[in-house]
Design a protein that fits this description.
The protein is an alpha/beta fold. It is 39% helix and 15% strand. The protein has two domains: 242 residues, 3-Layer(aba) Sandwich (Rossmann fold); 177 residues, 3-Layer(aba) Sandwich (Rossmann fold). The strands form two sheets. It has an eight-stranded mixed beta sheet, sandwiched between helices. A six-stranded parallel beta sheet has the order 11-10-9-12-13-14, sandwiched between helices. Strand 12, helix 11 and strand 13 form a beta-alpha-beta unit. Helix 8 packs parallel to helix 9 and helix 8 crosses helix 13.
Length: 441
């Protein structure tokens, strides 16, 4: 296997190696040290925000004096193919830039854009991570990001064997988010999956959701209110910053006069991203507007084919960008674009919004009016929210933003202010650590 890349986000941890602040690592002498296992399907160098948050949380916990192990798979997200330069093993231990252990265990590698491929991937990871978790040694607290069906029960069993507490950290609610994405129909299988996830919720010591809307969905399953808490997602405010000088945009051959509508990240099923190409078709005769999609995912090929069929010159696709280009890439857009199917409004929240707002860019969101994204936009005044799956409404919002550069700048400033106060890493990760420490007094 190639030499592991530096953990994304490691250099941004206050007092950590590579931070450059010169400050000593922070410790928490008031609390006894815990042994914490972070179990995650994704982890850097994968671009998935969930994995990056796990890396940053691991650094926060380690620098607070806790003994931390991250257990993950080999990099293959989102396509399901092992990254170039890597060799999968049954179990691999890697060095990190922080004082924690990183273990990678074997799982399936195959295109997993379909339901069966995803389920097989989750099953093999659940099986191998259970075995690797036993091998890793004792721990006091297990942090489990939400995954469909198999990983939850395996993790609960692992924690029970270790007599450890479990913090169930929900990113997407299953199976509701899978149904909303169109990958699963309501029926016997969905009821079984919901029963399994509800069992995991009840057996966990704490269940955490990123939004109040998602918390209400979990509470509707009959869990006590005190058992379900809010744990916001975050992004490192130092990692992505506003910038008016953008060499990245020039390197891509994008005209400085173009109004760039940026969609950056995974093009997933829950997004309903087809509306982007349809909106671009509506605006095909408006020169100077470019829809730029940076990333990958199961819908990308479909969108590329549709844009080609329509003969659209105002849509461009680029792959995921390296970490060093992430901040200038996000700052290259005049507006950031969030799209989400109406059925997914209460069970998922697109992480793209954090990147755009951190870069100081206003957001145009094609989402349900009652969704978390629409509520945040209204509260912060940093964008425009239009109904989902409505290309005419989306095109209208783009034209409105493109016609008023001053208003775009004003909403962009509000975006950064809202991001720092509501989604910045420093305050949120510190609060996460305190929640975990309360599990092990």
């Amino acid at each position: 296997m190639a030499a592991p890349r530096a953990v994304i986000g490691a250099r941004h941890v206050p007092g950590g190696e590579g931070d450059g602040s010169g400050r000593a690592a922070q410790t928490n002498s008031a609390k006894p040290s815990m042994r914490i296992l972070l179990l995650s399907l994704v982890y850097p160098p994968e671009h998935a925000p969930a994995g990056i948050m796990v890396a940053e949380l691991a650094h926060e916990l380690a620098h607070a004096g806790h003994e931390v192990t991250v257990l993950t798979g080999f990099p293959s997200h989102p396509a399901g193919r092992l990254f170039p330069g890597w060799k999968a093993k049954l179990l691999s231990r890697e060095q990190t830039q922080g004082s924690f252990t990183l273990l990678r265990c074997l799982h399936s590698f195959a295109p997993r854009f379909g339901t069966l491929g995803k389920m097989w991937y989750h099953f093999t990871f659940a099986l191998c991570s259970f075995w690797a978790g036993l091998w890793a040694g004792r721990f006091d607290v297990l942090v489990l990001p939400s995954t469909p069906a198999f990983c939850g029960p395996a993790a609960i069993l692992l924690a029970s064997i270790q007599r450890a507490k479990t913090f169930y950290w929900i990113h997407d609610i299953h199976p509701e988010s899978t149904i909303g994405a169109g990958l699963l129909k309501e029926g016997t299988l969905s009821r079984v999956m919901k029963a399994i996830d509800s069992w995991v919720c009840r057996r966990a010591s704490v269940v955490a959701t990123p939004t109040e809307e998602m918390r209400e969905v979990i509470l509707a399953r009959g869990l006590p209110a005190a058992h379900v808490v809010i744990q916001r997602h975050w992004l490192d405010e130092d990692r992505i910053q506003p910038s008016s000088q953008n060499g990245w945009r020039g390197k891509q051959g994008i005209s400085p006069t173009d109004f760039v509508v940026l969609h950056a990240g995974t093009v997933g099923y829950i997004s309903g991203a087809q509306v982007i190409v349809e909106a671009a078709r509506v605006l095909a005769e408006h020169p100077g507007i470019l829809f730029l999609l940076v990333g990958d995912g199961p819908l990308k090929a479909e969108l590329q084919k549709k844009a080609q069929e329509y003969g659209l010159a105002n849509v461009r696709f680029l792959p995921f960008q390296p970490e060093e280009d992430l901040s200038p890439m996000l700052a290259s857009g005049d507006v950031g674009l969030v799209v989400l199917k109406e059925q997914s409004a209460a069970t998922s929240i697109p992480s793209k919004m954090y990147g755009y707002t951190s870069a100081g860019r206003p957001v145009i969101a094609s989402v349900a009016p009652g969704s978390s994204v629409a509520r945040f936009i209204r509260a912060g005044g940093f964008g425009w929210a239009v109904p989902p799956a409505d290309p005419e409404a989306l095109a209208g919002a783009v034209l409105q933003a493109a016609a008023d550069a001053g208003e775009c700048r004003r909403r962009g400033q509000k975006a950064r202010e809202f991001f720092v106060s509501e989604f910045g890493r420093r305050a949120i990760v510190h609060g996460f650590r305190e929640k975990l420490e309360r599990l092990h007094p």
